[in-house]
Amino acid sequence: MNDSTIVSKIWNLAHVLRDDGVGYGDYLEQITYLLFLKMADEFNKPPYNKALKFPQIKDVEGKQIEDGEICNWENLASKTGAELESFYIQLLRSLSTEKGMLGQIFTKSQNKIQDPSKLLRVINLINNEQWTMMGTDVKGKVYEGLLEKNAEDTKSGAGQYFTPRALIKTMVACVQPKPMKKIADPACGTGGFFLAAYDYIIENNSLDREEKEFLKNSTFHGNEIVANTRRMCLMNMYLHNIGEIDGESFLSPNDALISDDNARYDYVLANPPFGKKSSMTITNEAGEIEKENLSYNRQDFWETTSNKQLNFLQHIKTQLKITGEAAVVLPDNVLFEGGAGEEIRKQLMQTTELHTILRLPTGVFYAQGVKANVLFFDNKPASKTAHTKKVWIYDYRTNIHHTLKKTPMTTADLAEFVKCYNPQNRNKRKPSWTEKKPEGRWREFSYEEILARDKTNLDIFWLKDKSLTDLDNLPDPDVLAGEIIENLESGLNSFKEIIVTLNEVEN
Q1: CA distance 426 to 452
Q2: 68-97 pLDDT, tens per residue?
Q3: Which tens digits make up the pLDDT trace of 398-446?
Q4: Which stretch of DSSP H or E encloses residue 357?
Q5: For residues 93 and 79, what is the distance between their CA atoms, to the nearest angstrom?
Q6: Angle between helices 136-152 and 24-43 (to 10 degrees)
Q7: Average pLDDT over residues 368-382
Q8: Sheet-wide strand order for 251-252
Q9: Could you say which DSSP state residue 277 is in?
Q10: Which residue has the higher pLDDT, 280 or 201?
Q11: From CA 298, how far away is CA 302, in angstroms rounded?
Q12: pTM summary value
């Protein structure tokens, strides 16, 4: 059975469960629990014989019940009806108190499939496949397929944790990560950057035993504060042969922005969560619920601000080794916002080599109304003069139209950017824009030019918008409608932020 057939089979069950009120995210969560248990069971049998240990059923205080059944696949798959439902609930609660990857996978786990007969159907579906015998690429595609389908479900909100894979692969192709190097993502979602980097290293190097071991257990390090997303990331990594089923987790559940953990990395690849303000919900003295903005007061930050993306940018700079490289997806406001934003841009160009910006079109992210860019920069040692000499900008936004379903962005769409980026030798870049060829998308700007711009604004564009001048060459109506919606949502988000700021000033 090929990977697309398995995805279809597993996903068809999701539609059945939807009638019972089980959302796509909840279903994927249950698949993760069951798939992990099934693979552990397979590893405990020949030819692997790993002797992975699972606890006995525990009581509500987390203590193993004497003579209680073992929390494993064999015992789960042998049950039906009410007995199955009861055992599954106890199993999830028991495994959530374990340490290492096992405990991380089952953190805050709950049974969301209330009908025992439907639960049994899911168990039988997974039981009919030998997952450890499948190739890593097949298992990975199956799970990635499920994650993408979940991201497509706008009601689930899972799209904010899923970066389009075409964009991720393009970013990795530009950075070209090497073996025996450490890679971090401070907001790793379902692990897309880790997987793309893993695939790139495997495909472009003949790895020896030590390098393979390092890639499997020591290369990747991430943070993900949402328990459900974190477990999906761990499962995604594991199905791609990253990490050990009984090993320590390489993901931290902590908010990456809280403090500097002093770990330094060779590469940081990231798409920090959308949403400009960092905040926490509190209950005031009157018993009313209200939001309080979070400003991370860190000694390593250039500026104290409640702007989440500006904080992630500062944190990523801290995470890099002196020779470290970063590729980060950030919204437009990071490029033009005044105050803290202006100072952070100046410091970034002073202390790192900010060499490339890729302007992205709307319609490529599952979260609508997002206008984003990719910033590529290399960390450098302390210096009295700015390390950034020139910034190259590729405008893949003006006159570009994508929709998630009809015309999704592909790696082929970004192939020209990679060619212009010239990862083999960035010193030999050539612009496609000249005064005689004003339609060129690839152009350089000197450090002095940028510094002279109002607020050191990096939101630079020069191409003419054809839709404003060529009425015979308008995009399809559904594309236009989508762009109008994206622009309205982007405007509404800006107005909401203005209102929040005004309320802060009044208070």
Answers
A1: 25
A2: 999 999 999 999 999 999 999 999 999 999
A3: 999 888 888 889 999 999 999 999 999 999 999 999 999 999 999 999 9
A4: strand 352-359
A5: 18
A6: 160
A7: 91
A8: 251-252, 220-223, 183-185, 265-270, 320-331, 372-379, 352-359, 390-395, 442-446
A9: B
A10: 201
A11: 9
A12: 0.85
- 141-155, 278-292, 461-475: which has the highest mean pLDDT? 141-155
- Alpha-carbon distance 134 to 35, whole Å? 13
Structure tokens at 420: 């212009």
Whole-number Å distance between alpha carbons of 287 and 290: 9
Q: What is the pLDDT of residue 500?
A: 61
Residue 391's contacts (CB-CB under 8 Å, 6 or more residues apart) are: 349, 354, 355, 356, 357, 444, 445, 447, 450, 458
Structure token pair of residue 157: 């909100």
Look up residue 290 and give its two tokens. Answer: 């209200």
Ramachandran bin of 191, using left for φ above 0, alpha for ψ from -120 to 50, beta for the remaining angles: left
The encoded tokens of residue 46 equal: 């020949």
* Token pair in block for residue 105: 């996978």
Give ∠ CA 36-41-43 in degrees, rounded to 5: 95
Contact 112, 26 (CB under 8 A): yes
Query: What is the pLDDT, as a whole number, of residue 132?
Result: 83
Number of Cβ within a 10 Å radius of residue 296 = 17
Instruction: State the Cα–Cα distance between residues 97 and 279, nearest whole angstrom.
Output: 29
Assign 328 to helix, strand or coil.
strand
Place of tokens 């959308």: 274
Q: What are the distances in angstroms from CA 141 to CA 331, 355, 490?
A: 29, 34, 33
Q: Is the pLDDT of residue 214 over 50?
A: yes
Taking each helix axis as running N to C, give the angle between helix 136-152 and helix 227-239, from 0 to 180 degrees, rounded to the nearest 10: 150
Across the range 240-267, mean pLDDT stands at: 91
Res 281: pLDDT:
45
Whether the per-residue pLDDT at 252 is higher than 90: the answer is yes
The answer to whether the CB of 354 falls within 8 A of the CB of 375 is yes
Query: Buried b vs exposed e over 266-286: b needs ≥16 C-beta within 10 Å?
Result: bbbbbbbebebbbeeeeeeee
Q: Answer yes or no: are the C-beta atoms of 352 and 377 closer than 8 Å.
A: yes
User: 414: burial class by Cβ within 10 Å (0-12, 13-18, 19+)?
Assistant: buried
In 3D, which of 475, 488, 331, 330 has the Cα closest to residue 403?
Answer: 475
pLDDT tens for 114-164 read 899 999 999 998 898 888 888 777 777 778 887 887 877 655 556 666 788
